[in-house]
Write a structure and sequence with these properties.
This protein has four helices and four strands, in the order βαββαβαα. The protein has 125 residues and is an alpha+beta fold.
């Protein structure tokens, strides 16, 4: 599915996570198992991506990860929602990504949001 992206996967080990990701950065990530090309989990951290990945490394849930840093909570949320909907049913994610605390954002990829946008359009008839 993601053959065209050519992303580098990193070993999900604490020393590498600490070497790559500074403290306090927001971001999204995908977890992978050895030998699989599709992610097994997608997630985000609204406060510290480094700490979130370190917690995953302790669980031995996955072998590899990739990540993206985002400068706003909105971008973080939208990126996670995009990955969630793209991979729906193919990952271990059981629930839809939650809105960032304190922001009233709606997932732009959910059908209910799309229907609401269509209802609010001007009619030119």
């Amino acid at each position: 599915m993601f053959d065209h992206l050519q992303r580098r996967l990193y070993r999900l080990s604490p020393w590498l996570i600490r070497a790559l990701i500074p403290v306090g950065y927001k971001g999204t990530y995908k977890l992978f198992r050895l030998g699989q090309t599709e992610p097994i989990y997608v997630g985000r951290s609204d406060t510290c991506l480094r700490n979130r990945l370190l917690r995953h490394a302790q669980t031995n849930r996955a072998d590899y990860f990739d990540y993206d840093v985002h400068w706003t909570l909105e971008n973080c949320f939208i990126a996670e929602c995009s990955a969630y909907h793209t991979l729906l049913g193919k990952t271990d994610n059981l629930i839809h990504p939650a809105q960032p605390h304190g922001l009233n954002l709606k997932c732009p990829f959910c059908r209910s949001t799309f229907d609401q946008i269509r209802q609010n359009r001007f009619s030119y008839s």
